[in-house]
Amino acid sequence: MKEKKNLVLLPNFTCHSLRHTFTTRLVEAGVNIKVIQNLCGHSRSDVTLDIYTTVTKELKQAEFDDFQKKLKEKKQEWKNRQEEDA
């Protein structure tokens, strides 16, 4: 007789953990915080941000990459201005 294995296709999670993930992903997608607050039914946006969202490694990296890009653009603008003044 074959032994039955209890296969787990998904890790253990709760509906509440899905709520946190959903909120985090909305923030990562750039959805307005007031819209997210309303979707979650929170009376205050600080609850939405402080309790229901997580800063992921991917979000940190994307924000840092965007910051570096802006710095390079500003540096180029400064360099162009210097050349125009010369």
Automatic annotation (TrEMBL):
Name the record gives this protein: Tyrosine-type recombinase/integrase
Superkingdom as given in the UniProt entry: Bacteria
A Pfam family per the record: Phage_integrase
InterPro entries in alphabetical order: DNA_brk_join_enz, Integrase-like_cat_sf, Integrase_catalytic
Native source organism of the sequence: Blautia aquisgranensis
Transmembrane segments: none
Keywords, alphabetical: DNA recombination
Keyword Lipid biosynthesis recorded: no
Domain Tyr recombinase: 1-65
